[in-house]
Amino acid sequence: MDNQADSYRFTSQEVLCPAERKAGKTPCCSTLKMFIVALSFAYFSKALSGTYMKSSITQIERRFDLSSSLVGLIDGSFEMGNLLFLALVSHFGAKMHRPRLIAVGCLLMAVGSALTGLPHFFMGRYKYDTLRHHPLRPMNLYRCVSLSFPECVKDPGSNMWIYVFLGNALRGIGETPVTPLGISYIDDFAKAENSAFYIACLQTITLLGPMFGFLLGSMCAKLYVDIGFVNVDTVTITPKDARWVGAWWLGFFVSSAIMLLSGIPFWFLPRSLPKQGKENKELPDTQQQHPGITSVHSQKLTDIAKGFLPSLKKLLSTPTYFLLLCGSVLKFNSFIGLLTFKAKYMEQQFGQSASRANFLIGVLNLPVVAVGIFLGGLLMKRYKLSVVAGAQLSFLTSFTAYLLLLLQYGTKCDNIQVAGLTCKGTSKVCSYWLFSECNRNCSCRAEEWDPVCSENGITYVSPCLAGCTGSTGHGKHTMFHNCSCVLLTPPPAEGSASVTLGQCPRGADCSRSFTSYMAVSVLSSFINSLGSTPGYMIIIRCIKPQLKSLALGIQTLVMRTLGGIPAPVYFGAFIDSSCLKWGMKKCGGRGACRLYDSDMYRLIFLGLITCLSGSAYFFIIALIVLLRQQFAKEDKRTAEQAPKPGQIELKVPCDFKKEFPVQTLTGTKESLEPRAMQVTKEAGHEEAVTANELQACPVEQCPDVDRPAEQTLNPANGQTEVQKNTVCDSQHTDAKSDVM
């Protein structure tokens, strides 16, 4: 019992009233700082890899001939793999070698990224839909004649998308230990005042990952998928063509190499470190001399395990947390859908290439989001916003961005005029359906998609359906002549019956609409990000301290389960419903969509986002009202418990020669001075001090042991009241000797 008491006194002294020792010179590059640098690079790498996957959605969809809903399922496989091991890693990871677990996670992410890009080397060369690939049609002739088609041979790479699914899931499994174990490692061994700063630096560096991920996606989308294996000059399609597939596989190998490098330092970092600022103290010897500390912690872990279900029930029955959770799930669904299909929306609505869409997102949208998050945190610190004020700021910025989003309904481009699809017999300039008299004898196939453009601005599905009988030139410069269907449309002033390869470009009005769209998008992203930090602080401050970790974990679990996995799937399914022209696989079956109804696409895409975000505001408004009521009651209770005028609150100093309980003395100056002199003498102080000379004992935030008992002097009866304090009070970090 004496040893255990000594142990508690030692811990209390170390935590509450540390003795003054001369600290040794701190090395310029401590192990903790090396860990933070390595973890920052790992954060950057995993963010780059994740956003590159988002930027390659369109390329994967076209290369494997998949629908948007199926490619959305592939994208959600990351969350599936992550959730599969999240609970196990979070529970057992803290008991193991955390840096090496992070290294294993980086290795798994590297292998997963490499596995995602590997199918490219087993699928053969990419053959897009074109009449040039038909063996009976010479390169220089696209005759409108009857042809027989050979028996189809099933593509051996038709099911290779499964490896992309598995690789993305493996990357999700590898990401599991990086965030929880990295943050806990920093929090365990960094000073309390430095921990928040280090984590903020991590989040800032992480924001660079998505920017470089989209830029990498832009570069790879500009390169042809089989670059280095085929002569690019023979390719007849351009990056703006619906059949174009960029070098999607290249970015996954680049991100795999970066992830592999980021994991190397963690293999050489120690399992534990001395607490920052106590590097010269022999902590291991201390723990050996005081084994009682370990048993206390073991008991606490057991109690936590037993109390999991009651804590979870208490958390979910907290109205503020439940409302915040519902609103967060809806907002996260809209965010994931927007991030996954934003580049594709820019392609289909405004005729941008995948490369340019990814480039603009990486250069314009993401940097302003980073600035907005930083400024939001600065506002919280500068004006010391309360929880209610932070919630109101978050709601105001989010709702303003929501109103700006509504403006995007008006920034649009008209459907391109495609004969037989968007331009039918009722149009003056397009007086025929897909099949008509002009191409009846051409044996054209309805599933063909090799678009050509006439000089009157009408796009035809193929030269055959345009009724063309001759061609000149080669490659991208091929022209087709004597097109009988074009003759039926009003010709331009100089007259022409020829068409060129590719869809007709959009007009100048579309370019102006796209500029307006990007301006609104960038402004909306910036304003919305201003409220991110205040909104995140709600869950930190309105939940009881003992439930914060569980609250953050449950929020992550629910958001990924109900948002990260299903959102890409149902967004893709709704987008598929706006498809006008599907590609066909070699042996039948629907492939990737070649042409969308841009008006319906816009209404579906923006409609889903606005409905989800709009529904979330009902929960957010209810949350703000509840927070106001809750904190109004707390303020009233605090005012009632405040010391009366003429009373002071003092604490005994820490520089006494022997251990003693921390004592808080409350009362008038005259009543406290005799008691203060007695306490200082009992504590072993050489000279008695007056009440004016008392200073507060500094208390570290949230020590691992309970604070000692407090003794409070009641001035009314002169009796000393002893009250055990087991709650960490991070506010008592400064000396307090104010006359109320």
Automatic annotation (TrEMBL):
Question: What PROSITE patterns does the record point to?
Answer: KAZAL_2 (PS51465), MFS (PS50850)
* Domain Kazal-like: start-end pairs: 432-487
Task: Indicate how the chain sits in the lipid bilayer.
Answer: Multi-pass membrane protein
Region Disordered: which residues?
A: 705-740
**Where does the record place the Major facilitator superfamily (MFS) profile domain?**
35-625
A Pfam family (short name) is: Kazal_2
Single Gene Ontology BP annotation: monoatomic ion transport
Nucleotide-binding is among the record's keywords = no
Q: What coarse category fits the chief subcellular location reported for this protein? A: membrane
Among InterPro entries, the record links this protein to: Kazal_dom, Kazal_dom_sf, MFS_dom, MFS_trans_sf, OATP
Q: Which GO terms describe its molecular function?
A: bile acid transmembrane transporter activity; sodium-independent organic anion transmembrane transporter activity
Entry keyword set? Cell membrane, Disulfide bond, Ion transport, Membrane, Transmembrane, Transmembrane helix, Transport
Q: Does the keyword Cell membrane apply?
A: yes
Q: Which PANTHER family match?
A: ORGANIC ANION TRANSPORTER (PTHR11388), SOLUTE CARRIER ORGANIC ANION TRANSPORTER FAMILY MEMBER 1B3 (PTHR11388:SF89)
Q: Which family does the entry's similarity section mention?
A: Belongs to the organo anion transporter (TC 2.A.60) family.
This chain's protein is named: Solute carrier organic anion transporter family member
The organism is Denticeps clupeoides
Query: Which gene name belongs to this protein?
Result: LOC114764518
